[in-house]
Amino acid sequence: MSGHSNWSEWVYIGVVVALLAWVGAEAWNIERLVEHVPENAEVIKVTGQQWFWTFEHEDGTKETGELHVKKGVPYKFEITSKDVIHSFNIPDYLVLMDAVPGRINTVWFLPVDEGEFPIQCREYCGLIHYNMRGTLYIEDGA
Amino acid sequence: MVLELQKPRPIWQIMFSTHHTDIGLLYTIMSLAFLFMGGALALAIRVEMFSPGPQFIADSMTFNRIFTVHGTNMIFLFLLPFASAVGNYFIPIMVRYKDMAYPKLNAIAFWMLPPAAALVWLGFADFGWYAQPPYSAISAPSPAAEMWIFGLKIIGVSSILGAINFIVTILKCKHPDLPLSKVPLLGWSFLSSSLIVLVAIPTFAAALLMLLTDRLGVTGFFNPAMGGDPIAYSHLFWFTFHPEVYVLVIPAIGMMYEIIPRFSRKPIFSHSSGVFAFVLLSIVSFASWAHHMYATGMSFTEKTVFMVGTLAAVPASAMHVFNFLATMWGGRAKYSTPMMWSVGGIALFFSAGAGGVVNTAMPLDFITHDSYWVVGHFHLFVFGTIAFGSFGFLYYMFPFITGRMYNELWGKVHFVLIFIGAVLVFFTQHILGLYGMPRRVFDYPEIPEWIAMNQIQAVGAVLLGVGMTIFLVNLIYSSAKGKEANMEDPFGLGGKYYYPYQAKNPHHD
Ligand SMILES: [Cu+2]
Ligand SMILES: [Cu+2]
User: Fold this and answer.
1) Do A24 and A74 have their domain in common?
2) A124 with B303: Cβ contact below 8 A
3) pLDDT digits (tens, 9 = 90+) for B133-156
4) I need a surface site. Which of B46, B98, B361, B385 has the fewest CB within 10 A?
5) For chain A, how long is the longest CA-to-CA vector?
6) Which residues of B touch A27 (CB under 8 A)?
7) Which residues pair with A56 in a beta bridge?
8) What chain A residue is nearest to B363 in terms of C-alpha separation?
9) What range does the domain containing A78 cover?
């Protein structure tokens, strides 16, 4: 019925713990690297509101629903919201960060391919959440 | 006798009864009714998503209300009451007591649920099952939001009353000859999950009141325009609801601990390992709530702490899986319907756990968060593990409740259809999430991969629908016309395996 300790269970638990420790250590290490923002990153202020995105570049130019950036230049997004929580997402570049009213969250990325890429909202924000979409244009900056 | 339907009684005798098996029967019937209602909503969602553009759901507001009520309903009106059903039937029997410790309180806890359910269903709120402010505080339409808040408030009180009853029954009413360590693992699972409820629920109860006063405009706890912080709500909410996942998973594992040894015709590999894993899981369940919140802008240190806390829950879950496999190993397994559900549930539990490790690894979370991956991930838990355990246990209880046998062939067909359907829907959702599709969207752009995967899901959902219809027909038909069960050994496993029926009989015939 009960109580017999068994070496096989201990080996199994040991393997599981070792795997978890490895996953945790790798995750810690990679996250530390990807969160390090390059010094020369240009700041883009991103504002979410029901139900569109607006962008403000360092030179003061503003865009709505479209974002134009240059290939090879690192950008740092400073993300906030005017109303409810949204989530700023460029799936092709694995950029994801919540836009929280009253807070500024940052995330950075480096555009490498020219082209058009979708921008979307990943946190439920009401009626037109499904169509809170935009487009990222990566252009040759040279 | 455990079974209560054999001698026909007028329905009001069952409704006004405080006896634990009657309350158990009420819980069973109510939870199954809401299972089918919530399932219909899920089917509507999947068919709507079959291709881009509106199909038959008129607008996004209706769609948003559907996924909100689907989620709220399945968690609070199916899974939670079904666990209470099992506990009500079996806990007094397992601790060898005549009833629950407080029978009237038990009846009150049950009868709080129908009005709460009415509030949730008639309100039909739209803010998702976690009611994230500020949307829920400033934007969500009345009176649906208020009705949802009051409904959940009542459900919270009901589960606290239920938890107190289970704890007292197990600790104080168990037979003096029965040491706590020898209480069956199903009993231990209810003790653990009830203790979690007591610690976890009050936080959400407070958050609900704060949300209500925010909506009334008299406070601004979660409203940044009034100096509040919506992320504070997230902490209060997930402090309750990450552990709540374990409140649901732990009894389901307890149910598998009943079924696996019996149908393997072998004693459980290690009772003490099961107890230890339950206790450990209850404690570490409180160390991981904020893993839902990496993308809200948490610092690197916070994320690291909650990643470690989340990973810490894995070894205890892995111990259960080991215990199941080691019990089955070398047994003479009989794959009757309850056993098939348990084994299928363990397989999906394992996949869900593996996916959870991916979610909590910080950089990967930012790929999966709020995408369809997450939808697939938690459905492997709530459906693949908890509902599978529950269905298996319902088949197992069936002869004890009705005195009749369900149809074994259709029980197996039910399992096969649901297993295939679940794999098609929930595994596809993981991949769809990696392709970037957000959750909770009424419509989506014409991306070929997204369309293909949504169509696979719709096919899976139809299989689930067919399987559940077979289930319903089998339950109704067999409880009226099924062949009489051999109460000494309904599953033909050989007599020396302990049945609740036999455990109960020596005390009163
Ligand atoms: Cu949004
Ligand atoms: Cu969680």
Assistant:
1) no
2) no
3) 999 999 999 999 999 999 999 999
4) B98
5) 75
6) 307, 360-364
7) A45, A62
8) A31
9) 42-139
Assess whether A97 and A111 both reside in one domain.
yes
Give pTM, 2 decimals.
0.94
Q: Collect all residues of chain B within an 8 Å Cβ-Cβ radius of residue A84.
A: 133-135, 138-139
A31–B441 C-beta distance less than 8 A:
no
Query: What's the rounded mean pLDDT across residues B246-255?
Result: 96
Residue B95 pLDDT > 70? yes
Amino acid identity of residue B108, one-letter, is I
Q: Which candidate from A16, A35, A102 shows the least CB-CB separation from B315? A: A16
Answer yes or no: is B337 within a domain: yes
Residues B305-317: tens digit of each pLDDT: 999 999 998 999 9
User: Closest residue of B to A117, CA-based?
Assistant: B436
- CB spacing of A20 vs B267 below 8 angstroms: no
Q: In whole angstroms, what is the distance from residue B17 CA to residue B30 CA?
A: 16
For residue B150, what are the CA distances in angstroms to B70, B208, B414?
17, 8, 36
Q: CB under 8 Å to B218, separation ≥6 — which residues? A: none
- The per-residue pLDDT of chain B, averaged, comes to 92
Q: Across residues B418-424, what is the average pLDDT?
A: 97
B301 domain-assigned: yes
pLDDT at B403 (0 to 100): 87
Alpha-carbon distance of B479 to B449, in angstroms, equals 45
Nearest CA in chain A to B309: A24
